[in-house]
Design a protein that fits this description.
By secondary structure, the protein is mostly helical. It has one domain. 71% of the residues lie in helices and 0% in strands. The two termini are 27 Å apart.
Amino acid sequence: MTREPSRRLAALDGLRGVAALIVVFYHLSLVARPFLSADQWAWLTRSPLKLLTAGTESVLVFFVLSGLVVALPALRDGFGWLGYYGGRMLRLYLPVWASLALVAVSIALLPRDPASVTPDSWLLRGNAETISWPQLFQEASLWKASYDVNNVLWSLRWELVFSLALPLFIIAARALQRTWVFAASLAVVATVTGRLVDVDALVYLPVFFLGTLMAVRLPELRAAVGAWPWWGRLGLGVASSALLIASWLARPLEGAISADLLWGLAGPGAAGLVIVAIASPTAERVLSSPFPAWLGRVSFSLYLVQLPVIGTLAFALGDANWPIIVAAAIPGSLLLAWLFHKGVEVPSHRLAKLVARKLNQLSSTESTLPAGSVNQQMTGPHEGSAGRAMPRSSVNSPS
């Protein structure tokens, strides 16, 4: 079945960029937390201000974006699956490996002294002070459950799982597109259930599925929500934002079943924000403006390099100097993200496109060859169609 062409939706890039910056703010808030009073922390996290530091919830926005943007090209007839897998793996792994190398170099040049930061703080619990080769290789595989060298890679693990299972997501979304409300409700129930029983696959993979459901119904979705009056789209944005941080606004229910139930609503909240981004002219103008658009271009790089910057500064200066760390880490992360984007991410994307094109040419050539001539074609140069370019996807992410 042929779907609406997978044209670039500029507002989604801007949304991805804003979400990546919020993740930076979130990690900086964790650095500052030991030095904030209970009232200050409550104002920061149990009020609408939490939207500025909704780090884990912003990752759910990445997951919805991936479910949508990665699936869109695959809905077209003749999609090159061989090229998709080859290119997609390169797009994910090469920047990840470079980010791990960056952390390793930073720790080698500026050793991290545990005594320089608050005991039992997030800095000690979530960031490696030393690195071993086995640890580095385990995190580089993206199959590890938890990550200390570059803590954000936990989400890339789920991006990898989704990317590998994309055909299953598309089959399910197409089969359920006529009953999409029921399907979306099942996804939300699965997320809540996963939170209650502590099964991460149930928590996160249904959020990707919400994005894939959007992909199979994108024209209808944009037309329907786009026809709403402005106040309807504004209401959707406000409601989605509230759902995204509902578990924080409802505290002190923390630790109760009701808190887990509310956290499960963050997935549909993230999906609602994506819908607003693609259907609201106002949101599109804001998210397509220069700074969000630039953030969108470097979002994957920003996501990967911000913790090396924050961790290095915190261990070097001591987390008691958190105002200086915040003041230095934000511009430092943005600058390093731009350099990483130019030096690592863009070349990785070019290589991924080249590999995808070659693999699709190989697949196309083999499908037209008579039996017995395949081996000869596989060992020589291949001519054929230009192949299908890899879609720009969000990893996690923001890739």
